[in-house]
Amino acid sequence: MAAPLELSCWAGGWGLPSVHSESLVVMAYAKFCGAPLKVNVIDNTWRGSRGDVPILTTEDNMVSQPAKILNFLRKQQQILSSPVGTHMLRKQ
After folding, report:
1. Domains of the chain (ranges plus CATH)?
2. Pick from 6, 88, 1, 67: which is nearest to 40 by CA?
3. pTM of the full predicted structure?
4. What is the CA radius of gyration of the chain?
5. What stretches of 1-92 adopt beta strand conformation (E)?
6. What Å distances lie between residue 36 and 33, 41, 51, 64, 68, CA to CA?
7. Which residue, 2, 53, 77, 90, has most beta carbons within 10 Å?
8. Cβ atoms 18, 24 nearer than 8 A
9. Bridging pattern class, strands 37-42 and 55-57
10. Which residues contact 77 (CB under 8 A, 6 or more apart)?
11. What are the tens digits of pLDDT across the range 38-48?
């Protein structure tokens, strides 16, 4: 994918990269799949264009809601050739 991916999400705390569970879901999925994300941490949702987080932004797309973001990443072929669960089990 040529366009850079940016994920806007809540700031972290207590040793977590985010205190927002839906942001954590997207961040974990992207990490396991190797999707190149730039994470933009926000501390209030008014900075998000839709008032909700997480928001995935590319040059020509803006996607919110975790399920829609994960589907977008899948469609952009940012997932591994094997399913994430199977891939993680093989490493153990």
Report:
1. 5-91 (3.40.30.10)
2. 6
3. 0.71
4. 13
5. 5-10, 37-42, 55-57, 62-64
6. 9, 16, 24, 17, 17
7. 53
8. yes
9. unpaired
10. 1
11. 999 887 655 55
What phi, psi does 4 have (nearest 5°)? -70, 145
Contact status, residue 6 vs residue 49, Cβ threshold 8 Å: no
Distances (CA, A) of 49 to 53, 64, 66, 76: 9, 10, 16, 23
Q: Extract the tokens encoding 69.
A: 């973001």
Beta bridge partners of 64: 55
Q: Is the dihedral of CA 46, 35, 28, 70 positive or negative?
A: positive
88 vs 34 pLDDT, higher one? 34
